[in-house]
Amino acid sequence: MQGRKNYTEKLFLSFRLSDRVPKDNLYRRLRETLDLSFIYKDTKELYGSTGNPSIDPVVFFKLLITGYLENITSDRKLVEHCSMRMDVLYFLGYDLDEELPWHSTISRTRQLYPESLFLTLFNKVFALCVDSGMVSGHTQAVDSAPIKANASMESVVPKMPATPMKSHLKKVSEENGETTKKHVGTVSPAHITAPEHELKRMEKHHQNLRDSPVRLAGASHKKARLLSNKTHYNPYDPDARISFKPGKARKLNYHCSMAVDTAEGVISHIQADFADGRDSQYLKGIGLRVQGRLGKNGLVMTDLLADAGYSNGANYDFLEQGKVTGWIPVFGKYKPEIKGFPYDRERDEYSCPMGRPLPFKGFRTNKDGSVLKNYWASPKDCKACPMKPQCVPKTKCKKIIRTIYDEQYLRAYARQHSEKGKRMKKLRQSTVEPVFGSLTQFYGLRKIGVLGKAGAHKVMLMAAIAFNLKKYLRKGGGRPFIGILSTITDTLKDCMTVFHWSNPIETDSHKGPIKTTLFSRILVQRPLLQQPRTFFGTLTIFAN
Ligand code: SF4
Fold it and tell me: Which residue's alpha carbon is nearest to atom 7 within ligand 1?
């Protein structure tokens, strides 16, 4: 017989939210695991003793965590979504018939709370991951990505000159078809702070683009403008900067730098920076903060993995001073040796193909502050040399300029081309890049919905907190045996050969699994390392 369900709304219900939320539900487990009571104490001073009660600070953070777990970036949509989810209501501590906070209260509270509070929560969640054995600490992978700011390129206006430079302003305004009337927004007009030589270089570059016979894509559009962070800004969000990735349109972005522990992919650090900076200038700050956070949790960083964007002599030196091995490829233009000009380390001099010396002549400081070493051949030698037309046709003598960090570069170059260096590159690519992909696709980091660098930092921290929490509950929460596994794999790290699925292991298979000591060579398929549950069951050990 066909059944038919009739619905008649009841006036009174006998219902308990806790009965309806399954035991293994993510939000139920979060409610049982996450102790946010410290937030009451940390936010007490931000409120007065009279007036209407504020949003509960713990509820505020729980709402934010839900937003990033559910990939919802709009506060209004978040409140709508939460009010329809029984498990989320249970996590928030609200009953079905209770009204959730008004959405604009969330954005005002976000502005009210300092970055340090968000950072404290991030540290607490990170400590949870450490306690469950998900963080090894020794190897950290660093990377960065531009994250779209909540500002439009259409609203970009020229900066005011720092000194009265009416002609310059007029020129910039004329070029862009704008007037100073457009200086509207939430802040007073910004001033040009870039040094004169950089402005000249930028102007030359723009002139080359205008004179180029091949016009840039989109250059014929009536709204097309040549813009630079040195001369333009967005008055609604002055911290957002113009940046682009090759092949993609220019946008106003924030720069997100992140460090990820390679054991289980837990985020160990995240920060917001201006998008017009280079990766390399942020590495020192990232390294110090990661070391500090790991140190507080009793862990030590020994290896740091990053791409060539972080290549910089000062960075190599900083890592070496801190006893950290930097697995950072040297940037493309670096040459470990100059062809035909061998270097004598003891005498600190080069010699040329004619056997003449190029001794060290002194230091030189570039406009960007980098220090270089000068090596010159004697003008007398070059003048009398038959090879001068080929060697130095336009100058009096041959000059070689090297960085003061040449030794550090050479060591980094050797590491980069070693077998371990190649493995470390793959490890970096398989660790930090997927985490960035997850944050932007599934944890609400595709766009910064708030204004200002401090706001962007809070957003990034919350996305990282949600990511780590989910990982903690899925992989590590309450499973201490993973810590034991991590310790064993750490011990074997340097005597272990890691094979991918595509690497056949038949070469050794004829030997069959035999008994081995702890420091024998171990062949293990890499994906198993990422699934510790199956690791012990299928690990096969072969003797060397
Ligand atoms: S031109 Fe000067 S540097 Fe070049 S080969 Fe001759 S002596 Fe050496």
Answer: 382
Given its phi and psi angles, is residue 64 left (phi above 0), alpha (psi -120 to 50 degrees) or beta?
alpha
Print the domain residue range for 420. 127-149+253-331+413-473
Number of residues that this document lists for the chain: 544
**Mean of per-residue pLDDT scores for the chain:** 82
Q: What proportion of the chain, given as a percentage, has pLDDT over 70?
A: 81
Asked if pLDDT for residue 244 goes beyond 90, the answer is: no
Please work out whether the CB of residue 523 comes within 6 Å of at least one atom of ligand 1: no
35: three-class secondary structure by DSSP: coil
d(CA 325, CA 287): 12
Does residue 392's CB lie within 6 angstroms of at least one atom of ligand 1? yes
Residue 529 has pLDDT above 70, yes or no: no
What average pLDDT score do residues 197-206 get? 79
Please indicate, yes or no, if residue 10 is contained in any of the structural domains: no
Residues 325 and 353 in one domain: no
31 and 179 inside one domain: no
Ligand 1: centre distance to CA 354 (Å): 6
Contacts of 119 (CB under 8 A, 6+ apart): 461
Please tell me the distance between residue 345's alpha carbon and the centre of ligand 1 in angstroms. Answer: 20
Q: Give pLDDT, residue 245.
A: 74
In sequence order, the 6+-apart residues with CB closer than 8 A to the CB of 396 are 379, 382, 383
